[in-house]
Amino acid sequence: MPGAPGILSNTRAMPHARSNIATLELEPKLAELGARSDAHLSTRMGDEGRSGHPGSPTTSVITKTKPRTKRPNMYRVLILNDDYTPMEFVVHVLEKFFNMDVEAATKVMLHVHHHGIGECGIFTYEIAETKVTQVMDFARKHQHPLQCVMEKK
Question: Domains plus CATH for the chain?
Fold first, then answer.
């Protein structure tokens, strides 16, 4: 509809009119993106006043930053030595809850026996907490005072 009021029919006569329309159309979207933390609005250098008119629109670039995934904190699961829990039970616990073979479990058990503490594995918080609970419950069920703890690595 050429000549209809409110519709620009000749963009050559008004070279900045097209960018005004684009700016007006983008303003709600820019406001929406500006509210989000993953979008940034930046103005290109040297665009201000390019058409020579004061208050003319500037060219804006919308960039989305990809959020970087932070690696989770890791926790060591440790078994503590006591004078009452049988060595065979400790080996059984290491095999059952930490998926160790007999040789690896025996090596860890002997380390606990000689040094008073031994590392069973390194896990994320939730997994480490679950392993500690499982070991402690299993030891209580079998009436052994075996202690298992976790510490931040």
Answer: 84-152 (3.30.1390.10)
Count H helices, E strands: the chain?
Answer: 4, 5
Residues 125, 72 contacting (CB under 8 angstroms):
yes
**Rounded Cα gap, residues 133 and 144, in angstroms:** 14
Separation between Cα atoms, residue 7 and residue 57, nearest integer Å: 19
- Report helix, strand or coil for 108: helix
Phi, psi values for residue 121, rounded to 5°: 170, 170
**Predicted confidence (pLDDT) per residue in 44-70, tens digit:** 445 444 555 666 677 888 888 888 899
pLDDT band at 32 (very low <50, low <70, confident <90, very high): low
The predicted model scores a pTM of 0.59
Angstrom distance (rounded) from CA 133 to CA 152: 16
Cβ atoms of 153 and 127 closer than 8 Å: no
Per DSSP, the three-state class of 84 is coil
Helix (H, G, I), strand (E, B) or coil at 7: coil
